[in-house]
From TrEMBL:
Endpoints of the signal sequence: none
Oxidoreductase recorded as keyword: yes
Gene3D superfamilies associated with the record: Dihydrodipicolinate Reductase, domain 2, NAD(P)-binding Rossmann-like Domain
Protein family (similarity comment): Belongs to the glucose-6-phosphate dehydrogenase family.
Domain (Glucose-6-phosphate dehydrogenase NAD-binding) ranges: 55-234
Keyword Oxidoreductase: yes
GO biological process: glucose metabolic process; pentose-phosphate shunt, oxidative branch
Function of the molecule: Catalyzes the rate-limiting step of the oxidative pentose-phosphate pathway, which represents a route for the dissimilation of carbohydrates besides glycolysis.
Residues annotated as domain Glucose-6-phosphate dehydrogenase C-terminal: 236-514
InterPro entries given in the database record: G6P_DH, G6P_DH_AS, G6P_DH_C, G6P_DH_NAD-bd, NAD(P)-bd_dom_sf
Protein name: Glucose-6-phosphate 1-dehydrogenase
UniProt cross-references to NCBIfam families, sorted A to Z: zwf
UniProt organism field: Selaginella moellendorffii
């Protein structure tokens, strides 16, 4: 886990500090809110002394502008990328002059207003832009020369991090060019790639083979940004550091688990990409499956990346084939109005899929993975619903069940829905909650963006929060047959209204799986109560 980050001082790091941690070690803090001192000591642990080149390929694109550079900027502001050690190289085909490039990425950096404006200028001074083709050896040799010039004269082995912010169709080509022309001869070379990693089992395996023939698994960092979210990173701590959960987290006590992603906007200019992929490939096969693994896995031997990922793999291996009767898919009305979407498109923008894990802990417990675009709210959460208390003497069964909810976003929170005595003279039971709302509890702590943590992990060489090849393969094995049936038109795509909960059939499916909706009570985030 990343340390608590508070100090916006770019040069606070000791250049002689120790190098990569890479052991997945959690840094335990005695106090909940961080201090400058905490940040300083933690920083020393993770920053190596040699120079670091971060090369963003596809630097003219949307991801680079909205996510990658802002994350790098935040790391810079917090002292993790000191200017005497780091250089950023943007690379793309667009013929941008450096000022244009700086204007393009600079516009998004000051957005949060978290850091003083002069840091934007200093950060941009570290970033340069190189225009070149993705299939041209000369352009990559030129890139290599520019990086080598920067590295020249430095004693310690330099480090090269290539971030492919590019359409997946060009990954193999670009990876080949890097391998042929830009490998670091003295220190490490790492390659970060973005989802989607293929469209199905076959194409994903082809991509893995292509990349695997050039780079070792240790050099490849497959980003799933859900693994960088605060509450997702808290899952293992919650589950394995609290005695409460040890005896409860199993089929004897848990009735069902829902992992839900909702967005209150449509495909928003990404219709062309989305129409080729659909919600299952965009959200469920990767983001929600990764979360499922962390919810369902056994305790790893240690927090080493391999131990954690070994346990996730075992969950994936135990997932049974998906039944069509346990799937609801839908498309929001108006989706096809997007000119980049086909008029006949049957691509689902909503899906609810029941997964069953055939092992001793989870046999019989449905895991409902639900994701949708253009719905009524924006929300992502894990909802674990417990079974009824046997022999209900309070006659409160109808009010609802105990639930443990982990709210990933917005407003990170964890709350437990409980039955308590209604305060007053009467002896009656009512629903309430134990509430850990982060904004209230950790008022001075800035929760880092997922991309910030994950980029920092790549620099540290910590692969715990990245997807290993076998995880990817197994996840595609689960979803490819379903995707084939959907594409063959064997499962009806139900239209739903924008701003709705999605097809009512999905709520019906949850009820059929034993989910009991709470009536007459709703958890209200404290931020909305004020
Ligand atoms: P873009 O479509 O913006 O592409 C990035 C850059 O790649 C473009 O600026 C362009 O640069 C180059 N490019 C575009 N199309 C092609 C092509 N057909 N052949 C060669 N080069 C091309 O993508 P994004 O920035 O949105 O996404 C990059 C990666 O990140 C993708 O894999 C995407 O799936 C993933 N991703 C994106 C997210 C987002 O929010 N945008 C979220 C999660 C993942 P130039 O022409 O200048 O070379
Ligand atoms: C991306 C998907 O991976 O995640 C998008 O391609 C989606 O469609 C996005 O909007 C959601 O990310 P977050 O962090 O806002 O939940």
């Amino acid at each position: 886990m990343s340390p608590t980050l508070t100090s916006p001082i770019p040069e606070l790091l000791d250049p002689k500090a120790d190098g990569a941690a890479g052991d997945g070690a959690i840094q335990v803090q005695e106090q909940s809110a961080g201090s400058g001192e905490h940040a300083k000591s933690a920083s020393k642990k993770i920053v190596a002394e040699s120079c670091l080149s971060i090369i963003i390929l596809g630097a003219s694109g949307d991801l680079a502008k909205k996510k990658t550079f802002p994350a790098l900027f935040h790391l810079y502001c917090q002292g993790f990328l000191p200017s005497h050690q780091v250089k950023l190289f943007g690379y793309a085909r667009s013929k941008l002059i450096e000022e244009d490039f700086h204007r393009r990425i600079g516009g998004h950096l000051a957005d949060s207003g978290k850091y003083p404006a002069d840091l934007v200028t200093k950060f941009l001074e570290l970033s340069t832009y190189i225009s070149g083709a993705y299939d041209d050896d000369d352009s990559f040799r030129k890139l290599d020369k520019i990086i080598s010039d920067y590295e020249a004269g430095k004693d310690e082995p330099p480090r090269r991090l290539f971030y492919l912010a590019l359409p997946p169709s060009v990954y193999p080509l670009v990876a080949g060019m890097i391998h042929k022309n830009c490998m670091n001869k003295r220190g490490w070379t790492r390659i970060v790639i973005e989802k989607p990693f293929g469209k199905d089992l076959k194409s994903s395996e082809e991509l893995s083979d292509q990349l695997g023939s050039l780079f070792s698994e240790e050099q490849l960092y497959r980003i799933d940004h859900y693994l960088g979210k605060e509450i997702v990173q808290n899952l293992l701590v919650m589950r394995f550091a609290n005695r409460f959960f040890v005896p409860l987290w199993n089929r004897d006590n848990i009735a069902n688990v829902q992992i839900v992603f909702r967005e209150n906007f449509g495909t928003d200019g990404r219709g062309g990409y989305f129409d080729e992929y659909g919600i299952i490939r965009d959200i469920i096969q990767n983001h929600l499956m990764q979360v499922l693994c962390l919810v369902a896995m056994e305790k790893p031997l240690s927090l080493s990346p391999e131990h954690v990922r070994d346990e996730k793999v075992k969950v994936l291996q135990a997932i049974q084939p998906i039944q069509d009767s346990e799937v609801v898919i839908g498309q929001y009305e108006g989706y096809r109005d997007d000119p980049t979407v086909s008029d006949e498109s049957l691509t689902p923008t909503f899906a609810s899929v029941v997964l069953r894990i055939h092992n001793e802990r989870w046999d019989g417990v449905p895991f409902i993975l639900k994701a949708g675009k253009a719905l009524d709210t924006r929300k992502a959460e894990i909802r674990v619903q417990f079974k009824d208390v046997p022999g209900d003497i309070f006659k409160c069964k109808k009010q609802g069940r105990n639930e443990f909810v982990m709210r990933l976003q917005p407003s990170e929170a964890m709350y437990m829905k409980l039955t308590v005595k209604q305060p007053g003279l009467e002896m009656s039971a009512t629903q309430s909650e134990l509430d850990l709302s982060y904004r209230q509890r950790y008022q001075d702590v800035v929760i880092p963006e997922a991309y910030e943590r994950l980029i920092l992990d790549t620099i540290r060489g910590d692969q715990q929060h990245f997807v290993r090849r076998d995880e990817l393969q197994l996840s595609w094995e689960v979803f490819t047959p379903l995707l084939e049936r959907i594409e063959a038109g064997k499962i009806p795509v139900i239209p739903y209204k924008q701003g709705s909960r999605g097809p009512p059939e999905a709520d019906k499916l949850a009820v059929e799986q034993g989910y009991v909706r709470t009536h007459g009570y709703i958890w209200i985030p404290p931020s909305l109560k004020d």
